[in-house]
Amino acid sequence: MHLRIESATTYAYDRPPRHSTQYLRLTPQSGPGQTVGRWDISAPGALTAWNDMFGNRCHTLSVERPGPALEIAVAGTVETRDTAGILPPSPADALPDAVYLRDTGYTGADHGIADFAEPWRDACRADRLAGLHELMTAIHAEIAYVEGATSVLTTAGEAFAERRGVCQDHAHILIAAARSLGIPARYVSGYLWTGETGETGAGGAAFSASHAWAECRIEELGWVSFDPANGVCANDAYVRVAVGFDYATACPVRGVRTGGGGERMTTEIRLFREDEPAILQAEREA
Amino acid sequence: MLRGPAFDEMTDPAGGPRPAWAALQSWLDATPLDLLHRKHGEAEALFRRLGITFYLYGDGAAAERMIPFDVLPRILSAAEWSTIERGCIQRVRALNMFLHDIYHEQEILRAGRIPPDLVIGNRAYRPEMAGVDLPGKVYSHIAGIDIVRTGPDDFLVLEDNLRTPSGVSYMLENRETTMRLFPDLFAGMSVRPVGSYPDQLLQNLRAVAPPGRPDPAVVLLTPGRLNAAYFEHVFLAEQMGVELVEGRDLFVDGGRIFMRTTGGPEQIDVIYRRIDDDFLDPLAFDPESVLGVAGLLSVVRGGGVTLANAIGAGVADDKAIYSFVPEIVRFYLGEEPVLANVPSYLLRNPEDCRYVLEHLDELVVKEVHGSGGHGMLIGPKASRQEREAYRARILADPAAFMAQPTLALSTCPTLVEDGIAPRHVDLRPFVLSGEVTSLVPGAFTRVALPEGSLVVNSSQGGGTKDTWVLDA
Fold first, then answer.
1. How far is residue B138's CA from residue A172's CA, in Å, rounded to a whole number?
2. Distance CA B465, CA B425 (A)
3. Total number of domains constituting chain A
4. In terms of domains, do A87 and A191 share one?
């Protein structure tokens, strides 16, 4: 699938800050499931590229006196392929697998999640891939997709207790559950093409183009993606942008400001499928 | 080495002074006690005037107080010092190699010499540092090695402090003070000087600057005046002639760190940071931290600045890793450790746990991740209720604890209310690593002032002494 992606994150301030520093994880990298074409980030200050511990391509943005608004815009193209959600082991994986067993503030498995996951321990031991599929399906069925029920600060345990959340919460719950079974798991932030009904749209869930899912380590395969919000493994509708232990370490934009106040952040994302018949696209845009 | 009479550093079993102490003994014989008490008063006034204080953290607000200073120096012979020096250099070289390894190839884990989960599952292991190449491969530029003595030749390492060890200002200030109080005694004893410490530290810090900066700029980053060691931060910055800064004075731009000055931004190459890892960068670690510098981790990973000590050095001084340090020395250096460890029981091992629970009244039990003498059980001194309460804590999470025999720490003569009496001491020499690893001949000696006490921590009623290393 050939996708064109445009996104804009805007901070608006009632009282402009003196300084703003951001970590941006907005640059997808080519791999087995995707080839990145042209990719541009624009921001009102110097962007310094670096690679974080996961191998994500990051940028640090530092802006002195940004004024009343600060916009970070991304535009680019990605060619995606369906690899059944499998990402073979790569030399780019700098971290030992065991590090993905560590709890984080978002993904600490409380008793609720650990107890929920426990019945799949034997299944995962016998056949980790099949066991995780079942676990993902169970979480998909258990946790309702409800926009606005949770916030970016909600932990896996909190969302699980409420039995509802959005993709971030589903991903955190699966990660916490997998780790409680001794399976290394990580968070993926990216984009999801939702223009087609069918497989990825099943389950009645609503989608925003910005998406999050999980990857679990399966020895003989590598990292395998599981999207518990949709109950499927990733296919060519998914664009992987960054991975992390959880939302905090994988999120697209994370910033700190000094001074100022009354901050509002909005993100707008648009995906265009460039290889679909022009007529369909025209219909959708109309 | 277990309980028994403590080794008296000054007096031999026959009642005479050991050779290194002979001059001090005859000076003491000729000096009236009230003069010593008067000198003690002078020293206290001096410290108070200099503002050498220490914050004590309790449950509520911090209380500022002075660490008591004992006027009688502790003396180490040239031979004793040579053992300590060789042992500390060996240990810190090996620990720096270990740190480089676990953030790169992890050969020691592959070789099965340390259980991987002790390292990888450790909170102090910072995956953020994986694959980062540091100048000179140095992680702990300043290490404080806590040593106890149990016999004439028995110096044992109790703890490695590889993160932000404090106390060196006491080594330097105590020396200034004893020289001022007892100039004649000092002049007569050929004591090796410690005053070059700040210069050596600065030289090392400049040596580990990112390459390509001919005249690297160094700053000392403090959490601020409420920190227990704030006095030391001010003192060291002054002694080195570098800026003392707080997080808000620094910012990140273009892959570098800059300091805000009235004359405009100035690029900073090396940060001697006295802030814990968690607080260094709110975008990478604790998001609530206002002590650090947003974006700092990205500059560290990009090689645009050097932190001393490096992020993640603490995994090597964890009490669970401690028991593997002799193995670490053998693995990286192919040498036998010069300084032994205090034997330890890791309660994560069921046999150790069983033994410890059966011998709680003989052992010191500590939290694996604790520090500063808090949260520990001194078995022989604890009441039955205290031991039982501690037993419950152990049973709830055995892996969080380790235990050691109660050591008879050596004693040194100490001025007390009614004369001079032996008090238990430990020793913290400071090991500096840059292009080479070295020590200035001196240390921070801590003394447990209450009679019979074995706890030297300054937060628990410990005092300090000047430490004299003799030339010959």
1. 36
2. 9
3. 2
4. yes
Whether residues A95 and A192 share a domain: the answer is yes
- What six digits make up the tokens of B243? 């800026």
Residue A32 shares a structural domain with residue A86: no
Statement: residue A106 has pLDDT above 80? yes
**Crossing angle (nearest 10°) for helices B384-396 and B350-358:** 170
Give the C-alpha separation, B284 to A254, whole Å: 9
Q: Which residue of chain B comes nearest to A47, CA vs CA?
A: B254
Question: What does the CA dihedral B306, B193, B81, B404 come to, rounded to 10 degrees?
Answer: -60
* Chain-chain contact of A60 with B127 (C-beta, under 8 angstroms): no
B88-107 burial code (b ≥16 CB/10 A, e <16) = bbbbbbbbbbbbbbbbeebe
CATH no. of B345-405? 3.30.1490.270
Give the least confident one: B36-40, B341-345, B375-379: B375-379
From the list B161, B232, B174, B237, the residue with the least C-alpha distance to B457 is B161
Residue B303's closest chain A neighbor by CA? A50
- Regarding whether A39 and A172 lie in a shared domain, the answer is no
Q: Do A139 and A233 lie in a common domain?
A: yes
Query: For A58, which residue in chain B has the nearest alpha carbon?
Result: B298
Same domain (yes/no): A136, A92: yes
The residues near A115 (Cβ < 8 Å, ≥ 6 apart) are none
Which contiguous run of DSSP H or E holds residue B160?
strand B154-161
Q: Taking CB atoms and an 8 Å limit, are A62 and B129 in contact across chains?
A: no
Q: Is B120 on the interface with A (CB under 8 A)?
A: yes
Q: How many CB pairs under 8 A join A and B?
A: 70
CATH number at residue A25: 2.60.40.2250
Which tokens sit at B442?
């001196």
Domain, as residue range, for A230: 80-250
Q: How far is A16 from chain B (nearest CA, A)?
A: 17
Would you place residue A85 in the very low, low, confident or very high pLDDT band (cuts 50, 70, 90)? very high
Which B residues 279-298 touch A at CB under 8 Å? Answer: 282-284, 287, 294-295, 298
- Closest residue in A to B256 (Cα) is A48
- Let me know how long chain A is: 286
Q: Residue ranges of the domains in chain B?
A: 19-342+407-469, 345-405
pLDDT value at position B53? 59
Minimal Cβ distance to B121: which of A58, A60, A102: A102
Q: Which residues 82-111 on chain A approach chain B with CB closer than 8 angstroms?
A: 94-96, 98-99, 101-102
Among candidate residues B249, B126, B464, B23, the one with its CA nearest the CA of residue A52: B126
> Which of A62, A95, A249 is most worth mutating to test chain B (most B CB atoms within 10 A of its CB)?
A62
Q: Are B402 and B156 in contact (CB under 8 A)?
A: no
- Residue ranges of A 46-65 with Cβ closer than 8 A to chain B: 46, 48, 50-53, 58, 60, 62, 64
Interface probe, candidates A19, A20, A22, A50, chain B, greatest B C-beta count within 10 A: A50
pLDDT for residue A204 is more than 70:
no
CB contact under 8 Å between B128 and A52, yes or no, is yes
Cβ burial B283-317 (10 Å sphere, 16+ → b, else e):
bbbbeebebbbbbbbbbbbbebbbbbbbbbbbbbb
- The verdict on A67 and A163 lying in the same domain is no
**B125 to chain A, closest Cα gap in Å:** 9
Q: Is B131 in CB contact (< 8 Å) with chain A?
A: yes
Length of chain B equals 472
What global pTM score does this model have? 0.92
Both A124 and A221 in a single domain? yes
ipTM: 0.91
